[in-house]
Amino acid sequence: MKFFISIRMLIFAFKNFEITMETTLNEAKKQYASDMHTCEHILNQTMVRMFDCGRSVNAHIERKKSKCDYLLNEVPTEAQISVIISRVNEVIDSNLPVFEVLMSREEAAKIADLSKLPAEATDTLRVIRVGEYDACACIGQHVDSTSELGRFEIISHDFENGRWRVRFRLV
Ligand SMILES: [Zn+2]
Which of 28, 38, 65, 85 has the highest CB neighbour number within 10 Å of its CB? Predict the structure, then answer.
């Protein structure tokens, strides 16, 4: 009898765990802003091309507004910020397909910056392409086409000790 109860309790505990996990995953999916995250890819590539800097060193992506930090030698001028906004929107307006390509680490290194890849990453990498514009090893969720993104706007930005923080949204 004792054994029977403990098995039942175990099954109950497991089912409960499963339900909790499922809820957590679903909630994470709901809150995950794949449009904002895809926009982050585009913004990163735009920054790399314009300032020859790395991709963002720190990012906080949320549905309503997001922020990314870049290491720059000096604060971007208002004219440069206007160019960032128009370039990101040009890419969005090009209706580029966003898709994954599985490739070896060696192949991926030819088209993407793998410097931030965690040491435990597998030898086969999932590289996310935004058309021909960007390639980045990433395990996140993305939209299928840049046409799903709204218009990119910079809300505010500040510069401190070589770190440029930009807050943006899609409207
Ligand atoms: Zn991604």
Answer: 38
Number of folded domains in the chain? 2
Instruction: Quick: pLDDT tens for 46-85.
Output: 999 999 999 999 999 999 999 999 999 999 999 999 999 9
The answer to whether the CB of 52 falls within 8 A of the CB of 109 is no
**Contact indicator for 131, 94 with CB cutoff of 8 Å:** yes
- Ligand 1 centre to CA of 42 (Å) is 10
Domain of 27, in residue numbers: 1-31
Top-confidence residue, 7 or 158? 158
Q: State percent of the chain over pLDDT 70.
A: 82
Query: Does residue 87 share a domain with residue 66?
Result: yes
Ligand 1 centroid to Cα of residue 148, in Å, is 15
Q: Would you give the distance in Å from CA 69 to the centre of its chain?
A: 13
Cα 30 to averaged position of ligand 1 atoms, centre (Å): 16
Looking at the fold, whether 48 and 127 belong to one and the same domain comes out as: yes
Q: Are residues 124 and 101 in the same domain?
A: yes
14 in the same domain as 85: no
Indicate the SS3 state at residue 139. coil
